[in-house]
Write a structure and sequence with these properties.
10 helices, 13 strands, four-stranded mixed sheet, UDP-N-acetylmuramoyl-L-alanine:D-glutamate ligase, nine-stranded mixed sheet, single chain, alpha/beta, about 25% strand
């Protein structure tokens, strides 16, 4: 007889520190310009933000890697940067967080994707400026990404593809990542973008959010039954093995074979949903790598996402926070 679910989940969390995860995708630098707003500009109907400080964080696929590391797993990152100051800062931040950067490919013709958010000291976002080159990698750059992914997959327990449509994830790269996962017998998980849905054939599990599931399937998803129908249609279109739809306040819906299971939301407070999908797929990957059953890995991911939405910006959580949440729910 299997041990009770809370005991299994705690043991899986304890095994996170023995896992190795490879993240492949679009790395980013998140910059927050924080200040106070006391008046409206006389020049235009916009708030005047009095600067207080800058805050830099790792974003996109880098945030997935940061979540894996914060939860105790070893992690390597394959992605694409420019040779600019933002790329240097991103590498430095990743190194400070003990995230492997040997798989990062620098292309001098590209900008490092940077999202600059202007926010108040009360965590209200005023504006966002994106610096990016989002054309898909080609030629030597694409080949370098594929080679790095194939090399680093040799020591990974699971591969996560974090696609933000910023150019790192190409059809060729996905084909070689799937082949690398198959050769090693390890799962390949995808946090998708719908324009690339045809790239993901052969992957183990894809984690669209509710809106992405609707767009991909041209189906309305409002009820649990509609979510199940959309998951079937999504799986058929993407050519993947399983689908996990993240549904915000409605929790998650897992389709595994013909079996569908709903996981109610466990979020108690929602401050900022930025990066919640990153946390969910990072935790799901760690569950796979730690040998958890798929259902248990989904429960862990659901709890992790419920915790991180209470924090501001792309955030992480510790194994202790996740364990406490599991204990509180049992």
């Amino acid at each position: 007889m299997s041990p009770p679910i809370p005991d299994r989940l705690r043991k899986s969390i304890e095994r996170f520190r023995y896992t190795s995860v490879l993240i492949v995708g679009d790395v980013m630098l998140d910059q927050f310009v924080v200040g106070r707003v006391n008046r409206i500009s006389p020049e235009a109907p916009v708030p005047v933000v009095q600067f207080e400080y800058d805050d830099y964080r790792v974003g996109g696929a880098s945030n997935v890697a940061h979540n894996v590391r914060a939860l105790g797993g070893e992690v390597d990152l394959v992605g694409l940067t420019g040779t600019d100051a933002a790329g240097q800062r991103l590498r430095r931040l990743l190194g400070e967080r003990a995230i492997g950067t040997s798989g990062l490919v620098a292309d001098p013709s590209r900008r490092t994707t940077t999202k600059l958010r202007i926010v108040t000291n009360r965590n209200l976002q005023v504006a966002r400026i994106d610096y990016e080159t989002d054309q898909e990698a080609t030629g030597a750059t694409e080949e370098a990404l594929a080679v790095q992914a194939e090399t680093l997959a040799q020591k990974a327990s699971v591969i996560v593809v974090s696609d933000y449509l910023k150019g790192a994830v190409t059809r060729t790269l996905m084909r070689r990542v799937v082949a690398a996962g198959r050769a090693r017998g390890i799962p390949v998980l995808v946090d998708p973008k719908i324009p690339h849905i045809d790239y993901y054939a052969g992957t183990t599990i894809i984690t669209p959010n509710n809106h992405e599931a609707e767009v991909a399937t041209h189906m309305r998803v409002r009820t649990p039954d509609e979510a199940v129908a959309a998951a079937h249609a999504f799986r058929q279109r993407a050519g993947c093995e399983r689908v996990l739809i993240t549904r915000g306040e409605h929790g998650m819906l897992l389709l595994d074979g013909e079996r569908a299971e709903h996981f109610p939301s466990v979020a108690r407070e929602v401050s900022d949903v930025t990066g919640a999908g990153d946390t969910a797929i990072a935790t799901l990957a760690l569950g796979f790598a730690a040998g958890a059953e798929l259902r248990d890995a989904c429960i862990l991911a659901n709890h992790a996402a419920g915790l991180v939405v209470a924090k501001f910006g792309p955030a992480t959580l510790s194994p202790e926070e996740l364990t406490q949440a599991i204990d509180s729910a049992s």
